Amino acid sequence: MSEVVSQPPPWSERISERYQCTLAPDLADWFDREIWQRQGTGEFRVPISPAALLSDAADEIWPGLMPCDMLPVLADSAGNWVCVRADANNQMSEMVQWFHGGGDWMPWGKRLADAIVFEAVVERLPGPRRRLAVPAENPKQDFDPLNDPFVHWAFEHQSKSIRELLAEQTSPQETAEILLREDIATEAVRCELVQDAMHQPWSSQVNSKIASKLGLSWNDCVSWMFDGSRIPADAWRLLKDNLNVGDFDRGTQDWSAVERHCKAVIDHTQESTRQLAWAWDLLGYAIERRDDRAGAIGVYERGATASSFTDQAVRMNSHWMQHEAAKFSVARLQKLAPETVQASKYLSSLLGSSSQACRHQVVEYWMDQANNARDPSTSLERLMHAGWDVGVDSFHRFSTLLDRIAIEAEAAGQQARATLAKTHRRCLQNRYGV
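RESULT FIELD:
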């Protein structure tokens, strides 16, 4: 009589057990049908095997730099990742594109299938396609969406309207409208639309070297790229004469569209640790531009605690105020309501550039807030701010911080976050000996 060979549990069950979480159906399908075994052609074409994720300390995790509620599942060739993120209900409920160069991150939808769809069609959206860093070569030069196995799998998990995008040529605006209507990576889509609304054609013709040659401050130029109304008449004449551009190249920035999209992003985001600084910064500035001083101050105050790793400052050209404060919202608050900044221990600690001393004060502030929290959930939220608001003053901080996060998450019944924090802690020990 032949011996019955038992089959191992599906990958999704093992990962769910390992991380004490519930996977979205599409992510379970990705693992169980072994889509990750195939070869993609897009920018994020390197899947992480479930076997690697089941290890005690996956090499793919960047401990300390990567927020400890994230688990990488898909990589590009440059060290950037698409991660899945655990929520307070132990659901793996959000996809995030994490950039290794500075630790910046951007939500890419609720599901892996949504993130892959967004990557497949992002070049078809309105806007200038500005990146956080210029790659050495085009990362999508071999992209073949009609024959890409990851793309085909992702579109299988979509509505008819989204599936039709793969074969049909829609206008940039129509593509954006379909993605928003079907709730596909809406924050990332609106980020592209905001850049489109702010884009001025002349800005593509100037860089720091050209600015220096013309005797212009590069920081001033960045502020003009951010808001065209800030360009002095004599500076515009100089730019026109030397860049071979005309008045039509100034374009027309649509700040009402900026305001609308940023408000939609903010309304879509609930948890404080997931607030997106770029949306708060630009909403505040759009309101400030229409002379609603009180409204702008209120938005800047509320947005000041959003992580600096979510400001998309290079893409939005909002980094022209970084010499005044570590966050754009705080810099604008200092202009509009300095008494409010001075009265706040937290806000005043962010004045000046983001230095080690600034980071130390911010971390200490959040640690004090966590110590005074009335419940584990609030303490956990504040500890996450301590680690990933403006970064830490010393990498050794993460050892005790991750231990504390794991304890508070467990006490709050957030087992997935506790398990992820413990995993990131082991990775920290293995990689850095901390």
